[in-house]
Design brief:
The structure is a single chain. This protein has 85 residues and is mainly alpha-helical. The chain has one domain: Winged helix-like DNA-binding domain superfamily/Winged helix DNA-binding domain (Arc Repressor Mutant, subunit A), CATH 1.10.10.10. Helices cover 55% and strands 7% of the residues. The chain contains three helices and two strands; from the N terminus they run H-H-H-E-E. A two-stranded antiparallel sheet has the order 1-2. A hairpin with a 5-residue loop joins strand 1 and strand 2. Helix 1 crosses helix 3 and helix 2 crosses helix 3. The N and C termini lie far apart (39 Å). This is MarR family transcriptional regulator.
Length: 85
């Protein structure tokens, strides 16, 4: 039962990251963006995400595996490599 719940949570997180990537590609967003800017892009593309904090959480987790670069500063900025490269 616990394994099933963990798997479901991981799948949800994967889906959130994929939604972010898809919107960034559709918006042709280059360079670095703040979580708030990414949240705004998600809303412009009719993707409900909840909050910039949630975006930052999803991207921060992916930064631990090297899929996202976090640029230190106030506020943090995020760089997501192009999937086509």
């Amino acid at each position: 039962m616990v394994d099933a719940v963990l798997y479901q949570c991981m799948a949800m997180r994967e889906g959130e990251f994929e939604r972010i990537l898809t919107v960034l590609e559709e918006a042709d967003a280059d360079g670095t963006l703040t979580a708030s800017e990414i949240c705004d892009l998600l809303e412009e593309h009719d993707e409900e995400f909840g909050s910039a904090h949630r975006v930052a959480t999803v991207l921060g987790r992916r930064a631990q595996t090297g899929e996202v670069e976090v640029i230190q500063g106030q506020p943090y900025r995020y760089r997501v490599p192009d999937r086509n490269n």
